[in-house]
Structure formats: structure tokens, C-alpha cells
User: Fold SET domain-containing protein from Rehmannia glutinosa.
Amino acid sequence: MFANTPYISPSAFKRPHNLKKMSRLARCCRWAVHFQKLHHSHVQTPSFLSSFSTSASASTPTLHSPPPVRVELTEYAGRGVFASRRIGAGELIHTAKPIVSHPSLFSIHGICYLCLRKLPNRDSSSGASQTVSFCSKQCEEQSKKFYDVEKKADWSRLNEYCRLQGLKYPLLVKRLACQVISRFVPSDVLDILQPEIPTSDRINQMKKEVALLRSTIEDSDIEKERMAFLTEEWYTGVLSRIRINAFRIELTVGSYEDLLSSAAASVIAEAAVGNAVYVLPSLYNHYCDPNVNIWWTESVDAKIKALRDIEEGEELRICYIDASMEYEARQKILYEGFGFRCNCLRCVSKD
Ligand SMILES: C[S@@+](CC[C@H](N)C(=O)[O-])C[C@H]1O[C@@H](n2cnc3c(N)ncnc32)[C@H](O)[C@@H]1O
Assistant:
């Protein structure tokens, strides 16, 4: 299983030339240590750690070969993902399972509560009295631990808060908190990801949210000591990482019926079925003319595919936003959402 985690180049650990490099190095070392801690942890190993798979051709993924990538420090953006061999256009580079996922409140009754797969004959927008469902015994089994915790509490206040404010990430934190309480993942599972630096407004908002989350869990019969991790510091750290690293999951259309319902959903609300955070996909940097693409077909399991031929040693980059947007709009969203100004060739030529 550990063999399937991406390779970190030893050169990333050698002869730092200056302090900036040393601090980047320290972050990279912490990341490697986290992988080891997770691997040796007595906590049940979550499925995302064994999820990397790759293939020589997109149609025949093999489960146990490591992906043809390595994680290294870049000159401009902390860590990045690089090709460890030549990769052909169209090749499925790897797949990934999420650390944490949650359906959007709009889709919640029409999709599997764990893998976000569409449930047959379900109208996603129907009544709030409906309970959530799983698409298979396997998803039900995998969710059992955190769902047993979740079922003990009344989440209506948190759901209402998210609905009114148009927020989705507190739902991911709620799910993660239930996973930690049920000992499905350690409380520091997201620490390997880069956090955003929150503004003071955001910090105040997060203080309110953690109070809401704590009081909801306190009102259930979960033992106090199992929620000791749930502090303002934990919530802020987790949400700051989710904000930079969460993916909005839009399933690619499979049938004519799917096409109609996704068209309807995009008019009524939005086409995303939910949000999720992964490990390896979160290490890809952004480029406005990307060489790889991340996409979802029937479930939350992500697929990373080469958009063109990639040489060994080339950095693999995805586009975080809608690449068809104009230069100014792209710069604004990247700066406000991800905290950086893009210097890619398209942006330099203001394309
Ligand atoms: C999802 S993380 C990507 C992995 C990250 N480099 C790391 O070390 O964990 C997104 C963050 O990486 C940095 N980043 C990604 N693409 C960038 C780019 N094209 N230029 C500058 N910074 C970038 C930004 O700080 C951004 O908020």
C-alpha cells in the first residue's frame, strides 16, 4: 500500500541553498512524515491511502503499480507533481479516492451519501424528510463508523446555516469531525495539505462555525473526550486547507437522461453533486493551459488524465478554474480563491 504513494525525489532533501528553500524543505519533510505516520497509525487505514492506481492505457488500470509521478519542490509554488516517465496523450495517470467528501445539499437525496453516485429513480430536490441513502452494501459498510456518529446528532441548524449562507465547506468539516470521532481517520489527516492564510473576517466566521459544530455534537450522546480535538485551532486549520484543496465534483454526463437532469440542475441550482478533498490531486499546481485534467465519471473517485504527450521530468498541472475565462477574470479568481497571481504563458501574454 505504501509503495503506491507517490515518490518524493531525494534531491528535494539535499543541500538547501537558502532559508526559503529550507522552509520549503521542512514542509516537504513534514508531508513525508505524515504519510509515514498515517501508514503506521493504528487507526484503520482509510481507503484513500490505497487508492492510487495507474495504467499504461486508459482502459486497463492496474491496482498495485505506483503512478508515473513524483512530488518535488518547485521554484514558484511549494510542491508540485512531476512526470517520472514519458506519459502519452490520453493516458490515465492515476485515480484517487477522497479523504473526505460530502454531497451538496441540493443533491443529497438523489445520490449516494458516500461515493456521490447517482441513485436510480431518485429526485434529488425532493422533500427534506427523506433520509440519505447509499448506492451499495460496500458504501454502507465503509460509512458505518462515521455515519453511526453522525446519526446521533441533529444537523438541521448546521444544514440551515449552510443553506442560508450558501456554504458547502462546513459540511466537509462536519463529515471529517465524525470520521475523527469514529477513529476512521486521525485528526491531523489534512495537515499534509497547504492551508490558506485566513483573513480576520474569515477567522471570526470560523469561530461561529466551530461553536455551532461543537454544540451540535455536544447535544448528542457522544462522549466528551472523543471530541477533545474539536477546538477553534483544529477547525481553522482544517477549513483553511479545505478552502484551497477541495474539488467541486461534477460528474460527466453518461446518458441522455443524465444530460437532461444536469441541465435542469444547472438552471435550478448548480450542477455539482458535492465536494471532496484528496491527497495527491491536491499537490498539482495550476496552469491556465494545463497538460493534465481531473475528472469524475460515475462517482467521487477522481481520474487524472494526460491532455497531451508529457516528457519525463515535466511538471503536471491542472487548471483550477474555467480555462475559457478572460485573463482578468482568471487572475481575479485565482488571487481571491487561491492567493496567487498566475504567471503562466497565457497570463503573461494577457491571453
Ligand atoms: C492545491 S495547492 C497545490 C500544491 C501546493 N503547491 C503545495 O505545495 O501543497 C494550491 C496552492 O499552490 C500554489 N499554486 C498553485 N499553482 C500556482 C501557480 N501557478 N502559481 C503560483 N502558485 C501556485 C498556491 O499557493 C495555491 O494556493
